């Protein structure tokens, strides 16, 4: 058996990141550690953690550094936690961990890593993902949404970002709006609960994107009759489709509003969407379109056209 087999197995499990104590347990003495760090083969991150390779750490290695740096219990949080659960499209941002409120070892965080102190029981909030304690989907989502609304963790953070995150997590089937609402009650120190509950109520009602939530908000703000959202339709080719919003009018006709997101800027997607609209067209169905940006920034213009098409106020 090779003498370095122990630490090589450790390095493989933790993406070349380990603590000095772990290396000692694997049979690596302090002199070897000093020699490899001095020669540049390994790199130290604070007094406890080493990268067992030269160069700058990757994103995955930064997560391991953040997990091993504190002495106490930690739980991966924020975008990295949700990425570990499978969320797509929200990977950018700092690596964030929750730590105990009295954990002094986390005060000097390595670059690019944030520690947030909490008095919550991290064990009950966490599951194991990729070898480390990671917040469950629901508390990870709610705490990140709260931080985004507060303007933390990114210059583009906002209430809209918070709502977009909640919608994305539900849309990608990582959890449900009902489960997130239930977890609001389990996190007594969660900030901005009324706002988050409002978003989740909209999502539970059928809104699975921020554009749909904006549609609901527009109808509420301008006293329009709320639409039927995501109504299933069968097009002329027999394919099942879902429309963004529909209003059934007293004369038996229907007004349809389709909201184009940023993906419609792609030429192929745009042509596919136009083809979809043609094949859903029938006598008595009037189809209107707007962009997600217009719905958010100039809702009064959309309302004007919906009223002209016969959509009633309430």
From TrEMBL:
Residues 226-245 are annotated as: Disordered. Pfam families: AbiEi_4 (PF13338). Residues 9-42 form the AbiEi antitoxin N-terminal domain. Residues 232-244 have a biased composition (Basic and acidic residues). InterPro entries: AbiEi_N. It comes from the Bacteria. This is AbiEi antitoxin N-terminal domain-containing protein. It comes from Gordonia jacobaea.
């Amino acid at each position: 058996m090779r003498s370095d087999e122990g630490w090589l197995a450790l390095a493989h499990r933790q993406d070349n990141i380990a603590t000095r104590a772990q290396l000692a347990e694997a049979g690596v003495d302090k002199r070897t550690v000093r020699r490899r760090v001095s020669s540049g083969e390994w790199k130290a991150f604070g007094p406890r953690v080493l990268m067992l390779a030269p160069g700058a750490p990757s994103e995955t290695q930064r997560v391991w550094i953040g997990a091993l740096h504190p002495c106490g219990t930690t739980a991966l949080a924020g975008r990295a936690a949700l990425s570990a659960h499978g969320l797509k499209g929200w990977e950018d941002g700092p690596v964030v961990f929750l730590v105990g409120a009295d954990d002094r070892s986390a005060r000097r965080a390595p670059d690019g890593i944030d520690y947030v102190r909490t008095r919550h029981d991290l064990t009950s909030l966490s599951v194991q993902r990729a070898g480390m304690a990671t917040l469950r989907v629901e508390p990870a989502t709610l705490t990140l949404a709260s931080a985004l609304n507060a303007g933390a963790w990114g210059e583009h953070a906002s209430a809209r970002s918070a709502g977009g995150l909640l919608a994305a997590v539900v849309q990608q089937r990582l959890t449900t709006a009902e489960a997130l609402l239930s977890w609001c009650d389990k996190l007594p120190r969660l900030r901005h609960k009324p706002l988050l509950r409002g978003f989740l109520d909209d999502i539970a009602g059928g809104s699975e994107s921020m554009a749909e939530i904006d549609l609901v908000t527009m109808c509420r703000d301008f006293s329009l009759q709320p639409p039927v959202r995501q109504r299933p339709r069968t097009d002329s080719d027999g394919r099942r489709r879902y429309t963004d919003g529909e209003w059934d009018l007293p004369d038996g006709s229907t007004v349809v509003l389709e909201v184009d997101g940023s993906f419609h800027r792609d030429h192929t997607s745009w042509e596919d969407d136009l083809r979809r609209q043609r094949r859903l067209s029938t006598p008595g169905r009037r189809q209107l379109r707007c962009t997600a940006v217009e719905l958010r920034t100039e809702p009064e213009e959309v309302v004007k056209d919906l009223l002209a098409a016969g959509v009633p106020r309430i």
